[in-house]
Amino acid sequence: MKVCVIGTGYVGLVTGVCLSEIGHNIICVDNDSEKIKKLLSGVMPIYEPGLDILVLKNLNSKNLQFTTDISSAIKSQDIIFICVGTPPRPDGSADLQYVEEVAKQIGNNINSYKIVVNKSTVPIGSGDWVSIIINDNINSNNNLNSNDSNYDPNNNLKNDSKNNLKNNNNSLNKKSDIVSFKFDVVSNPEFLREGTAIADTFFPDRIVLGSSSKEAINIMKKLYEPIINQSFKVCDELLKILPNTKNTSPIPVVETDLVSAEMIKYAANSFLATKISFINEIANICEKAGADIKKVAYGIGLDSRIGPKFLNAGIGWGGSCFPKDVSALTKIAAEYGISTQLLNAVINVNSQQRHKVVQKVQEMLKIVKGKSIGILGISFKPNTDDTRDAPAITIINNLINLGAKIKAYDPVVKKIPESLNPKTIFCPKVEDVFDGADLIILATEWEEFANLDFCRLSKKMREKNLIDGRNFLDKEKLLSLGFNYIGIGR
Ligand code: UDX
Known about the structure:
Shape: globular
Distance between the termini: 53 Å
Bound molecules: uridine-5'-diphosphate-xylopyranose
Radius of gyration: 25 Å
CATH class of the largest domain: Alpha Beta
Strand order of the largest sheet: 3-2-1-4-5-6
Number of domains: 3
């Protein structure tokens, strides 16, 4: 099938590349010409295990193309994925300017029936809003309408537009005597975790398809058929990297309306963030009461109603999705006059976890000013170079404000993120952070850190203090090596 993916960020790139691998004809579009040039020469803009293998393979087989020419891509393909960013605005609501721009481009270039797939995480009701913008731009191209796009982002749709949609049953026709172009909008949220995004695409827990058009949902099921039936072949190069989690039974498909699909995405991320904040709150109680959160999490996780995943206590959640989506859901709720007391607490517990680490540093070192602190890991979680809202960054910045000298090492993050205090010394080798350190903080649980020779490295330190922000290291071993070890909730 002929697919255009607009936006080559995490979601767009992984989605496009994986769809090309299962045999579809994919054109990935981005307005960043440098990025497109790099992709065409096989250089990946993000660190994601296996991505480079699939890009090169499918560029060679011509299943995959990269371009900056959005008009031609929209015209030539039948299914258009919107995968552009929806970054948080200062008030926490989602910034929809990029989605809006793409919807206008679709309206301007539509030349046959298209399915427009919203994969960007957008506020509830945005599927309808995208329909309106596309329709308005089809019309304005034909000089049938004024350029009033009849929408108010993050707010209710204007009445005229609502009626217009209703009358057209969400399959909008260009009001021209000459040609009639129809399109349907589908919400198909992504549930990709950075670092395992390719496995998550090929072996998903479910596929969610929301639309008022049964025809569009059926076409989307056809697109995903090899994944739904798990009938595709994983190439040998990828098998070495991916966990072989191929399912024997078909992947469940949730067929629903647009709004419910949009809500599934927000509710899933908010629930997972809630689970983590819950276990972090329990960890804080464990710490005072003398219980071990690792045992407690194991004990509750064995209850099949609770499950073991997302119960690792630590310095909290970050990244590009949880912080943005939980905040956006509270904003959406506020528009309906609903106060999200639980979600507000989830956010507060998460930001406290970062500050608690700084308090632990103060308890350990007493005076922070002038002390040398080594940080293991900068990315918000392992197997990614993403540092967006990474707990490590907040912790480092706060410690620098208190006068600490920070040396940091990350296996893949090699450029100082903008949000990081530039006084941070980036070390090329992990042992450098131990040199003369008064304290080491593990902020990201990279596998590499589990295998460090702490006996040798401890000899480089001034004081053997260690805070394990992810309860990842071997506590007993570190204690036996003479470390003053502090974890989270144990
Ligand atoms: C998340 C969702 O999992 C994915 O479905 C969605 O579409 C995008 O957002 P991602 O942000 O890549 O994926 O990371 P994830 O593995 O979910 O972890 C999110 C954060 O929670 C990380 O900061 C991680 O360190 C933290 N976390 C996770 C914990 O602190 N404890 C846990 O038990 C699990």
